[in-house]
Q: What sequence folds into this?
C-alpha cells in the first residue's frame, strides 16, 4: 500500500489531495478523545444546566423528577434579596480586587524587570502563593485574623493603631475587606508574573531611545511602557475578572460566606442552594445566570483582542 | 576596608532592591507564620500576644496530623487524582494539540476559539449537572469522579500550550518520518513528542497544580472521608467549634511541599506558560 502511495503523491495533484485528506482524518482521530471528554464534561453539562434551570426538580425515591416550569426559577432567583446581594457582592469584590491586583502587580512587575540580582529567586517566591491551595491560604488568614489570638491584632496594637482586640471577620465591612486582602495577597503575584513576561517582550532599545531623548521615568512609564503593555494588561484583566467572578474557595473556607451573608459570592450561594437546600432548579438558575454574565464579559473582552487570536493563526 | 564595604552596601540599597526585599517579605511572612505555628504547642498557639518562635518546639502537631486514618489518606487521594489527570491531559492534549497545530483539519481556528472560551467557564456552571451525572453513573465518592472532570477542564489550556510548541518543530522532521513510511502514531510519539518536552513540562505543571488545589468539584463529588483530597480535608477540618490550627498547619505544611518544590524547580516552565497565556490570550 505504502509503496503504491508514495509515487502517486509526488506525481499527481489528486494524489497530493488524498494525502491531505488522510492527514486531516488522522487529525480528527487523534483529537477525538480530547474533544469527546471536553464536550461530555463541559459543553453538555452547561447545556443540561440551562435545561435544569427551566425545570422544577424534585427528589423522589426513584431519583430526580423534572417538571418544565419555564423561567419561573429565574424570576424566583432574581427577585430574591440573597441573590441580589450575592450579585452585588461578587461585582464589587471583582472590581476592587482586580483593580488593586493590577496596580500592585504592575509595581511588582516593574521591580522584577529592573532587578539585576536575584530575579529568579524572587520569581520562585512569587510562585508560592500562586501554587498554594486556596483552602490552606484561607485557614492561614483566618488564623492571622483571629480576634482572640491572631497576630494581626498583635501587630496593629503594637503599632498603636488600635487599643483593643479587633474581630476582623466579625462585622460585614471588615470581613469583606479582610477577604479581599487575602485574595490580593494570593493573586497579585500571578498578575505580576504575567505583566513581567509582557515587559520582557518589549525591546530594550525602545527604553534606551526614550532615555536618550531625555524622557523621565514617569514619562517613559505613561507614554511608552503602558501603551506597549496594553495587550498583556488586557489578558491579565480578562483572566482575573473571570476568575474573580467565580470566587468560591477563599470566602467559603475563610468566612463561610459570613458574617450572616456578607461575603457570600454567587458561586457560594449556588453551591448552598444546590447541596444544602437541594434546590436543583434554582441552584442551576443561579449557576446559569453567573455563566451568562461571565460569558458576556468574556465576549466584550474577546472582541477587544480578537485581532490577536487572528494574528497568531496567520503566523502559524 | 570598612568604608569600602559601606559604600558597597549603599550602592546595593537602590529603590529597586529595597522594593524587591519588601515584596519577598510580604509574600513570605504569612507562609512562614503558618509553618512557625505548626511547631508550637496548643497553649502557645492560643497565647496573646503570640511569641515569634515556637517555645517549646514540638512535633506533636505533625504526629497528630499524620496519626492513624488521617491526613496521609488525603495526600494519597490528591496524588492519585492529580497524577492520573495530568497523565490523561498530557496524552490526549498532545494528540489534539499536534492535530490542531500540524494536521490539515478543517475549522481549526474555530475549534481553538471554542477551547479558549471553555477554559474561562466558571466551574459552578457545570457542578449540578455533573453531580447528577456522577450520581447516575454511581461515581460519587470515587477517584474517577474527579479524574475525568479534571482532565476535561485542563485539556483546553494544555492543547493550546502544546499546539504552540508543536508549531515550532521543523516540518521536515515529520516529512522524513512519513517518507520512511512511519505511521501517524509513530510520528507523533517518536518524532514529535520528544521535541516538545518543554511544552509537556509547562502543561504538566499547570495541570498538576490545578488538580492539587481544586476544591469545588472535590467537595461536591468526593466529600466522603475515604476519597477526600487535601483541599476538602482542609476545608472540612474546622467544622467543629474550634479549629485545631496546630494540626491543620502541620498538615498544610506537608501538603504545600510537593507543589512548592515542583513550581520552584520548573520555575521557567511556569513563567513561560504564563507568558504564553499572555501572548496568545
A:
Amino acid at each position: 500500500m505504502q509503496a503504491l502511495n508514495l509515487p502517486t503523491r509526488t506525481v499527481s495533484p489528486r494524489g497530493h489531495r488524498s494525502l491531505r485528506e488522510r492527514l486531516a482524518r488522522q487529525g480528527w482521530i487523534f483529537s477525538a478523545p480530547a474533544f469527546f471528554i471536553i464536550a461530555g464534561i463541559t459543553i453538555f453539562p452547561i447545556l443540561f444546566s440551562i435545561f435544569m434551570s427551566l425545570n422544577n426538580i424534585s427528589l423522589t425515591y426513584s431519583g430526580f423528577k423534572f417538571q418544565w416550569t419555564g423561567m419561573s426559577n429565574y424570576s424566583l432567583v432574581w427577585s430574591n434579596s440573597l441573590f441580589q446581594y450575592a450579585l452585588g457582592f461578587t461585582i464589587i469584590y471583582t472590581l476592587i480586587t482586580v483593580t488593586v491586583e493590577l496596580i500592585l502587580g504592575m509595581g511588582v512587575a516593574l521591580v522584577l524587570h529592573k532587578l539585576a540580582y536575584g530575579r529568579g529567586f524572587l520569581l520562585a517566591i512569587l510562585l508560592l502563593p500562586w501554587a498554594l491551595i486556596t483552602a490552606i491560604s484561607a485557614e492561614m488568614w483566618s488564623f492571622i485574623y483571629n480576634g482572640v489570638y491572631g497576630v494581626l491584632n498583635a501587630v496593629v496594637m503594637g503599632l498603636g493603631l488600635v487599643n483593643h482586640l479587633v474581630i476582623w471577620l466579625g462585622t460585614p465591612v471588615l470581613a469583606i475587606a479582610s477577604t479581599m486582602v487575602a485574595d490580593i495577597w494570593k493573586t497579585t503575584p500571578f498578575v505580576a508574573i504575567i505583566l513581567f513576561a509582557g515587559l520582557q517582550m518589549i525591546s530594550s532599545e525602545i527604553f534606551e531611545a526614550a532615555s536618550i531623548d531625555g524622557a523621565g521615568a514617569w514619562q517613559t512609564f505613561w507614554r511608552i511602557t503602558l501603551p506597549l503593555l496594553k495587550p498583556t494588561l488586557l489578558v491579565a484583566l480578562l483572566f482575573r475578572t473571570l476568575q474573580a467572578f467565580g470566587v468560591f474557595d477563599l470566602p467559603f473556607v475563610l468566612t463561610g460566606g459570613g458574617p450572616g451573608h456578607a461575603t457570600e459570592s454567587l458561586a457560594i450561594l449556588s453551591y448552598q442552594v444546590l447541596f444544602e437546600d437541594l434546590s436543583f432548579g434554582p441552584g442551576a438558575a443561579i449557576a446559569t445566570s453567573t455563566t451568562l454574565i461571565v460569558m458576556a464579559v468574556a465576549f466584550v473582552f474577546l472582541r477587544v483582542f480578537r485581532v490577536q487570536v487572528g494574528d497568531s493563526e496567520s503566523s502559524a | 576596608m570598612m568604608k569600602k564595604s559601606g559604600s558597597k552596601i549603599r550602592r546595593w540599597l537602590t529603590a529597586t532592591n529595597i522594593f524587591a526585599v519588601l515584596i519577598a517579605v510580604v509574600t513570605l511572612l504569612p507562609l512562614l507564620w503558618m509553618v512557625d505555628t505548626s511547631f508550637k504547642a496548643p497553649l502557645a498557639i492560643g497565647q496573646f500576644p503570640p511569641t515569634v518562635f515556637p517555645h517549646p518546639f514540638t512535633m506533636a502537631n505533625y504526629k497528630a496530623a499524620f496519626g492513624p486514618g488521617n491526613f496521609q489518606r488525603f495526600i494519597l487521594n490528591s496524588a492519585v487524582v492529580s497524577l492520573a489527570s495530568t497523565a490523561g491531559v498530557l496524552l490526549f492534549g498532545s494528540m489534539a494539540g499536534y492535530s490542531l497545530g500540524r494536521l490539515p483539519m478543517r475549522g481549526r481556528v474555530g475549534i481553538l476559539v471554542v477551547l479558549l472560551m471553555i477554559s474561562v467557564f466558571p466551574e459552578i456552571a457545570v457542578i449540578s449537572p455533573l453531580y447528577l451525572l456522577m450520581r447516575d453513573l454511581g461515581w460519587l465518592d470515587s477517584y474517577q469522579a474527579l479524574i475525568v472532570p479534571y482532565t476535561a477542564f485542563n485539556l483546553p489550556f494544555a492543547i493550546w500550550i502544546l499546539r504552540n510548541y508543536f508549531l515550532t518543530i521543523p516540518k521536515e522532521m515529520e516529512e522524513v518520518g512519513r517518507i520512511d513510511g512511519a505511521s501517524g502514531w509513530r510520528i507523533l510519539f517518536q518524532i514529535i513528542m520528544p521535541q516538545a518536552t518543554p511544552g509537556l513540562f509547562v502543561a504538566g505543571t499547570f495541570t498538576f497544580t490545578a488538580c492539587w488545589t481544586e476544591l469545588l468539584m472535590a467537595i461536591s463529588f468526593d466529600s466522603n472521608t475515604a476519597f477526600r483530597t487535601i483541599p476538602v480535608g482542609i476545608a472540612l477540618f474546622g467544622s467543629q467549634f474550634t479549629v485545631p490550627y496546630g494540626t491543620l498547619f502541620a498538615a498544610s505544611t506537608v501538603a504545600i511541599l510537593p507543589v512548592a518544590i515542583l513550581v520552584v524547580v520548573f520555575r521557567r516552565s511556569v513563567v513561560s506558560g504564563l507568558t504564553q497565556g499572555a501572548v496568545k490570550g
Remarks:
- The longest helix of chain B spans residues 71-102.
- Residues 77 and 229 of chain B are 5 Å apart (CA to CA).
- Chain B is about 75% helix and 0% strand.
